[in-house]
Amino acid sequence: MRRFLLAIAFLCGALPQVQAGELQDILQIHADEVAKPSRRSVGVLLDDLVASGLPQVPAFLEEWAAKNVWRAPDGDFVFGSPDGDGLEVRDVDTGQASSAGKEGYSQIKPNGGVRRVIGTALVQFQLSDPDPDRRRSALEAISRRPEAAQLAPLRASLEGETDPALLARKQQLVSFLSAQFAETTDERVAAISSLSKDTSVEARSVLNRILSTREGVAAELPDANIARITDASADPDTFYGVLTAEGLAPPVVTDAEIRTALEQNVAGGSSGGVPVARLNDPEIRQTAYAQLAADGLVPPLVTIADRDAALAAHVFFDAYDEKDPAVTAAAEEALASVTQRVAWEQAADLGLDALSLASIYFLAAIGLAITFGVMGVINMAHGEFIMMGAYTGYVVQLFVPDYTLSIIIALPLAFAITFGAGVTMERLVIRHLYHRPLETLLATFGISIALQQLAKNIFGTQARPLTSPAWLDGAWVMSDVIQISYIRIAIFVLALLFLALILFILKRTRLGLEVRAVTQNPGMAASMGISPDRINMLTFGLGSGIAGIAGVAIGLYAKVTSEMGADYIVQSFMTVVVGGVGNVWGTLAGASMIGFLQKGIEWLNPSNTLAAQTYMILFIILFIQFRPRGIVALKGRAAAD
């Protein structure tokens, strides 16, 4: 009787404004639907719940979808959760909790389809929830499963949205839903046109869904939104197979099937009116089979002419699932625009990757450019100075847990350590081997092996972490296509700082003046009171110190191991030789050329990076044949050598 009176009151408008505390009354009106919900009929209940405006509704929908709604022995609906052998029940209106036994209580278990419908209704409340995380969750739910019913509440939530990021996301989703589900063609076309500048994966997915097609075949072109008509003559056997699969033409009889049919219809030493002895000829077998088909004993034989005639009598087409031609035309135009933009953005992203790689090569090679260019020393241990710098950063972080401060300390410390190591190496070994390049190469190669083994003995063979500060985590995302990590940006900025610093030292300081003098004419420089021996020592130390700083920067991006220097020594020499020995601008040009060339080859052959490096080396060999002094040739001693 209670449910009957409530239903009469509800239908007669006696409850035009349902007040807080009356959710149970609405549930009782639809008690059967709550207890045994059906996807087809649950909409009426959900509409009444949404229209009520009760603050308890969102919580009820969440609990209902989570299967936490129970029906009490007296018929009321409550929230319940197992509590030992009993239940902890809460009133759906007041939330008042109490304990009860499970006897007489029945759990409501809506199926997956009903839960999806409930989730759609729940989104309407979550879109305007005071909690930004709940609003964000609602938007994620919409993006995962877009439906036409979500468009209206999503539009309504725009006005009250205070978070700029969530507002932008809502506007984007409104465009996506409008493009697919808006009521009028003009609205859909306008929404689709707005997506022509959106290169996100979601936007492209929306356009592709609108342009989804189905294959079809018919005697005449149907009245549908046709995407394209296919020429069956390009592959007649495949398209005839489509006809037979659709039951529009008899299947092709294979030679094996012809043989079997003839064997099964042998009578009196012949089959199909042809003696068995003559059935070795394929054409005669077809003639005999045709006679059996004429007698109705076997399926008809499909000849080439029959196949071509059947194909000519039918039209093969792809039809859009979307029936409105104006919508698909707008989607085609928008997708073409997006595809073009994506291509440009991919080129820009490839350029950023190449620029980042070039900055890494520049950092690794600039120290070698100074020592090799000024002194003519082939230093095979240059990579190990990079490794020493990286390990210096690792050790500093062991004692300074603040990663930002540790990097600030590690950079000058790495320079000091590798500068000292470079000076020591020059004084003990290199100074005795000037103008003996082969012996210098062998000596420095031996030092390289010794330094690697020393690093293994101290730090082990396992890669050590050189952690970047938190503000370098993540990437700068300009679009779904263009993004670059903050570490790569930091390395690029560091490379620019080094370029400016080295140019300042070489052009504006006395040391730079003396280095340039010794580089171009050591004899004249010595007659002017400059000590070439001292300049060589300082130059080698400077180049080694710069390698140490480069090691700290590279260690933030790459693994720190005893062999890490070997990963960069070959590229460093190529950078110096291609750019021009002993020239800062040449090193920059060489790093840029190698970085862009390597990324370009990797883009053409992304599955094989080793092949990309091989092609790059071959290209560089050819380049040196035509320009042996590099991109920026240097005059003086280095050029003569």
- Sequence of strands across the biggest β-sheet: 4-3-2-1-5
Oligomer category: single chain
Number of helices: 27
What integer is the average pLDDT?
A: 82
Give the percentage of residues in beta strands: 5-15%
How many separate domains? Answer: 3
Largest sheet: 5 strands, antiparallel
CA radius of gyration = 39 Å
Low-confidence stretches: 1-20, 636-641
User: What is the tally of beta strands?
Assistant: 12
Helix content: 55-70%
Please give the alpha-carbon distance between the first and last residues: 109 Å
* Rough outline: extended
**Which structural class is indicated by helix and strand composition?**
alpha+beta
Walk me through what this model shows.
By secondary structure, the chain is an alpha+beta fold. Helices cover 62% and strands 8% of the residues. It has helices at 2-11, 23-29, 31-35, 42-52, 57-65, 112-126, 132-144, 151-156, 164-181, 185-194, 201-210, 236-245, 255-264, 282-294, 304-312, 325-375, 382-399, 403-428, 437-459, 486-508, 510-520, 522-527, 532-557, 566-579, 584-604, 609-626, 637-640; strands spanning 69-71, 77-83, 86-91, 97-101, 106-107, 213-218, 226-230, 270-271, 274-275, 315-320, 475-477, 483-485. Strands 4-3-2-1-5 form a 5-stranded antiparallel sheet. The protein has a 3-stranded antiparallel sheet with strand order 6-10-7, covered by helices on one side. A hairpin with a 5-residue loop joins strand 3 and strand 4 (97-101). The longest helix is centred in the middle third of the chain and has 51 residues, at 325-375. It is extended.
